Known about the structure:
The protein is mainly α. It has two domains: 15-63, no CATH class; 83-199, no CATH class. Helix content is 65%, strand content 0%. It is built from nine helices and no strands. Helix 1 packs across helix 2 (34-42) and helix 6 packs antiparallel against helix 7 (148-172). The longest helix has 25 residues, at 148-172. The radius of gyration is 33 Å and the shape is elongated. The chain starts with 14 loop residues before the first helix and ends in a 9-residue tail after the last helix. Mean pLDDT is 79; it is low at 1-6.
Amino acid sequence: MESRPSPLPPDGRPCAEVRDLISAALDGEAKAGTDAVIERHVESCGACAEYRDGAAVLRRRLQLRPHTNDAVEVERLLTKLHAPRLGRGGWTRPVLAWLGLVIAVQSFGPLVLGQADGATTHVARHVGASGLALACGLLYAAWRPHRAYGLLPFVGALCLATVVAAVFDTIDGERSAFAEAVHLAEILGTFVLWLVAGSPGWERFTHAVRSHWPGVLRSTR
């Protein structure tokens, strides 16, 4: 006997065609009027209605994961985002702003007057410009702490170069260690900027220390 084709639903559309439309609608690729065609079909076709509901549930499960209070995952995401830590009472931002102002005042003489110990006017003004740029960076990070992480590489490199130059000047006898104390504000500013930026690298450092010498450092969390 020849098998008879399954009767079409009252809307006259094959189920295979409607199921393709259902998939396209769930993917957001359906054309205008598709929803109405699907609704007319599923009103009289229980199998396609069940297919649509099952496909919708499956899509939601693939798109969304159940929320879990995973402390390790939360810590990983916070570390990746480099969230700023403002300290108790938010003291780091006012301190950072104050250090920025101190460095700006120190840069006034070299930049405007061209005066710096043992330097020509040209060199003094370059030193003053660098100092003012550093001051502006610290003040901006105090105003917008979420930008601190991006400023940290530049400020850190500038501070390191300044410290190295100061050490060489002291060794060569060009300047005394007391005279080089003028750079203390820059060193402190870099440190406070690192705190505001979320102390990047500190967790990794403490983890490495604890793994080699358990009990030396307690967790900072």
